[in-house]
Amino acid sequence: MRTYTIALAGNPNTGKSTLFNALTGLKQHTGNWSGKTVSLASGYYEYKNSRFRFIDLPGTYSLFSNSADEEVARDYIVFEKPDVTLLVLDSTALERSLNLALQVLEMTDRVIVCLNLMDEAKKKGIKVDAGKLAQKLGVPVIPISARNNEGLDTLSEQLLLMCTGSIRTTPYRMKYNERLEEEIAKLETELKLIVGDEYPARWLAIRLLDGDRKLIDTLKQKLAASDRGGMIYGAAKALGSTNR
Amino acid sequence: MDETNILQHLHQASLGERFLIERVDIQGELKRRLLDLGFVPGAVIEVLKASPLGDPISYRVAGTVIALRQEESQLIWGKVMPS
Q1: Of the residues A7, A193, A212, B2, which has the fewest C-beta atoms closer than 10 A?
Q2: Which residue of B has its CA nearest to A95?
Q3: pLDDT for res A141
Q4: Residue ranges of E strands in A75-140
Q5: Could you tell me which chain A residue has the CA closest to the CA of B38?
Q6: Cα–Cα–Cα angle for A215, A64, B48, nearest 5°?
Q7: Number of structural domains found in chain B
Q8: Residues of B contacting chain A (CB within 8 angstroms)
Q9: What CATH number should be reported for the domain holding residue B51?
Q10: How many helices and strands, by DSSP H and E, does chain B display?
Q11: Range of B54's domain?
Q12: pLDDT digits (tens, 9 = 90+) for B3-21
């Protein structure tokens, strides 16, 4: 049986862990405050002769590595490359959730968005047009209520379809101003020579322009640790790594 | 005319008032953090209440309550909205 890896990402208190528990049947307890999910919990779930391995990433508002939590979540998505990053959004606070969503869409195109807490939203009189959101974001958007086990079948089906490559996404990518885009394009081309298709070159370019030192260090380590011979050797050297 | 003359900072807004953010005058990690929390130009912030000693003050931003110290709220510029 094939096993696919699904990373759960989202803001704190969006019900990520509830969804995780509902799908894997685990009783992983997480509390009502940010940063509770520190080490990565993982659990399995079988669906139609496939196995999903779910990784419950720490809940964060952002992935710019302001904290250990954000770094863990970000590094997992970019460097571990799960088959799908399942983005859990709070339907009652979409404005807040979408900040993280846009960041994730910049990092990978294997994203499924689920709108959790739909029951809460309904109670508050909030209507969310999932179809329109899917169109704008360029990835599948599935309304669910993890607490009431609603929408989980549809979600499982979409996960399987994406894992088996039957869904193509066109994730929304932020356009920056002209000068920035010029610099991004320049760096992206150079980065492509180093990382190939291994890591998201455009996203890396943006992070480098932002002066993200920690990311440069992580990238160096990853490239040095990879044992793909000459190309990586050259790459590590190009990035000034002494640890080859 | 220099626009900063007519802008107020968030700390000048009174309890119960709504404040439209126009500029966040902070650099580096703190700015990043504030933006992530929803203190972005164009956002409307509601001043909720002050802690017993007057600082920090809590604000409603993007549907959640976040408290800021004076050092931070003084660097967020905009206008109090007419009620």
Answers
A1: B2
A2: B62
A3: 96
A4: 84-90, 111-116
A5: A96
A6: 160
A7: 1
A8: 29, 32-33, 36-38, 62-64
A9: 2.30.30.90
A10: 2, 6
A11: 3-81
A12: 556 889 999 999 999 999 9
pLDDT along chain B (83 residues), means of 10: 71 92 87 88 93 90 89 92 82
* Residue contact B62–A95, C-beta within 8 A: yes
CB contact under 8 A, A62 and B63: no
* pTM score: 0.82
Which residues 6+ apart lie within 8 Å of A84 measured at CB? Answer: A4, A5, A6, A7, A110, A111, A112, A159, A162, A163
Q: Which of B29, B36, B63 sits opposite A95 (nearest CB)?
A: B63
Q: How far is B55 from chain A (nearest CA, A)?
A: 22
Query: Chain A closest CA to B69's CA: distance in Å?
Result: 19
Q: With contact defined as beta carbons under 8 Å apart, do A54 and A21 qualify?
A: no
Write the residue in B29, B37, B64 that is nearest to A93 by C-beta.
B64
Instruction: Give Cα separations from A146 to A20, A48, A73, A120, A149 (angstroms).
Output: 9, 20, 21, 11, 5
